[in-house]
Amino acid sequence: MLLLNKVAVITGGGSGIGESAAELFAREGSKIVIGDISSSAESVVAKIRHKGGEAIFVHCDVTKEQDVQTLMETAVKTYGKLDILVANAGIPEKKGPVHELDLQDWQRVIDIDLTGVVLSNKYAIIQMLKNGSGVIVNMGSVLAHVGQINSTAYSASKAAVVNFSRSQAITYAPKGIRINCVSPGYVNTSLLEKLPPEITHQMIEKHPIGRLAEPSEIADAILFLVSEKASFITGTVLHVDGGYTAI
Ligand code: NAD
């Protein structure tokens, strides 16, 4: 097992990529703490426990500093330490040209997709510094690296997450904490469910591999980065995008 006796906090672990990572990490021996605003995380915890794993759900809005602090402290109180953070919670944006931007829509995406990641890193690192070790994966996107028509807050927040991660990686490398990003292409999760079929088809065409990713394929990449298999990797971005950004 790659994560035997590790303790992992996964934000947004109640569905999609986060859910898949929580289940995979649990199979690899990690104790799981899911921070999410959705009670769907309770069923993820139940599934993990049903299979003999250990997991808890902490209601946490990643935009609220007190919630995030409580999330990390609860992980340590429950399981004795914090080894891994996957800062995964995120929402899509309402697409539109910037001259029609609604500032509230912008702010909500920035709050969750960027500030939520920053707060999660802050309070996880406070705990990791006590151990002198830790590993973080922050969730990027192909849209951190390439432009997309009518994308504003989402592209901006994901690009910021990538460079934020690089800076934190070099800040905390001497303290034994590794920090990387995973930048997925489009993944079959609830984020995409409401889109019309023609848009889904256009999305598929952007991936040379000829299909969208499954959440488990993103979870596998996250597992690699948080495991000892990636012990010399910090400050990097792992593109898990079926060739999207290679074009
Ligand atoms: P998802 O909607 O299935 O899961 C997101 C989870 O985040 C949900 O459980 C939701 O309740 C939670 N969440 C939302 N706001 C929150 C908040 N304020 N505090 C705590 N939790 C909150 O989405 P997903 O596709 O699994 O996306 C996960 C991450 O991957 C996101 O950061 C997303 O931007 C990124 N991503 C997704 C895709 C894709 O195509 N699905 C592609 C690239 C990157």
Q: What does the main sheet amount to?
A: 7 strands, parallel
- Which ligands does the model contain, each kind named once? nicotinamide-adenine-dinucleotide
Mean pLDDT figure: 97
Beta-strand content estimate = 15-25%
**H/E topology pattern:** EHEHEHEHEHEHHHE
Strand order of the largest sheet: 3-2-1-4-5-6-7
Our measurement of the CA-to-CA distance between the termini, rounded to an integer number of angstroms, reads 36 Å
A few lines on this structure:
The protein is of the alpha/beta class and 247 residues long.
Report what the structure shows:
- The protein is α/β, with parallel strands linked by helices and about 250 residues long.
- The chain has a single domain (about 5-240), classed as Rossmann fold (3-Layer(aba) Sandwich).
- About 45% of the residues lie in helices and about 15% in strands.
- The protein has a seven-stranded parallel β-sheet with strand order 3-2-1-4-5-6-7, with helices on both faces.
- The structure holds nicotinamide-adenine-dinucleotide.
- The site of nicotinamide-adenine-dinucleotide has 29 residues, from helix 1, helix 4 and helix 6.
Give the arrangement of secondary structure elements.
Blueprint: E1 7-11, H1 16-27, E2 31-36, H2 40-50, E3 55-59, H3 65-79, E4 84-87, H4 103-131, E5 134-139, H5 153-172, E6 177-184, H6 190-193, H7 197-205, H8 215-226, E7 237-240
Parallel strand pairs: 1-2, 1-4, 2-3, 4-5, 5-6, 6-7
Helix pairs in contact: 1-2, 1-8, 3-4, 4-5
Bound molecules: nicotinamide-adenine-dinucleotide.
Nicotinamide-adenine-dinucleotide binds at residues 11-12, 14-18, 36-38, 60-63, 88-91, 112, 116, 139, 141, 184, 186-187, 189-192.
